[in-house]
Fold this protein.
Amino acid sequence: MKVLIATEKPFSKVAVDGIKVVTDAAGYELALLEKYTEKKQLLDAVADVDALIIRSDKVDAEVLDAAKQLKIVVRAGAGYDNIDLAAATAHNVVAMNTPGQNANSVAELVFGLLVYGVRNFFNGTSGTELLGKKLGILAFGNVGRNVARVAKGFGMEVVAYDAFCPAEAIEAAGVKAAKNQEELFETCDIVSLHIPATPETKQSINYALVGKLKKGGILVNTARKEVIDEPGLIKLMEERTDLKYLTDIKPDADAEFAEKFAGRYFATPKKMGAQTAEANVNAGIAAANQIVGFLRDGITKFQVNK
Ligand code: 3PG
């Protein structure tokens, strides 16, 4: 069996070494395609592989067509909006993710961005503290729960809303539940997004919703750029000069945001919520174990195209 790690944004070396330990133990061959710049490189590399480990790398019908022997693709991470699930099913390929494995890494970055934001991008002027501020968490999955845990360490008041998680479950985790996302934005100083990119959520973070934030409000996005209605957010930030937008996923209109909102907008050069050695090791090794579990024992626990 041959396993390919195809990562445009590479894992740390220690994660690749850890994956190799798992594939070696199973007697599988491991190949590596990192930092590729052309889709053609991916199409060539998948030609003879049985299993594929990816990150945000796109696996569409063309990739699946080229991967004639492929049986399983594992997205080492949470969001699998980069895999064409219907095409995977049509090609008889099992698609999986590794939920939770990089959640703490993303949650810690939220606070890196927040401290940078409330301290005025470290420009030396007097900023504000997070202590006592109200943080709204939109979607209470693995990342949202980790954000809540860290927020409590900062002494923040924490509120969450999740369309798929009942209020009782949120409150059982020691977090106040908002009735809906409107209430979350209306009542919080800061809102952190942890929703997946789905047809329902795409562009759902719009002018009207973000406009509900209190004066001096901050929107943090370590989820997906697609959930933001970019023209709506630009219009709002032009009108509301008190608002800040901090993200680790550059919007399509990055240049316009940067030009118009200097001092109120920050985007990391690359998506980096999950860019820690620990997250890479956790997600990468989980992916390798899931591949062995599936190919050897038929385990489909984390399959997302059932
Ligand atoms: C995820 O969905 O797991 C995160 O967004 C991380 O994505 P990445 O592996 O491309 O950094």
Notes: The chain is about 40% helix and 15% strand. The pocket of 3-phosphoglyceric acid is lined by residues 9, 55-56, 77-79, 102, 271, 273-274 (CB under 6 Å). The radius of gyration is 20 Å.
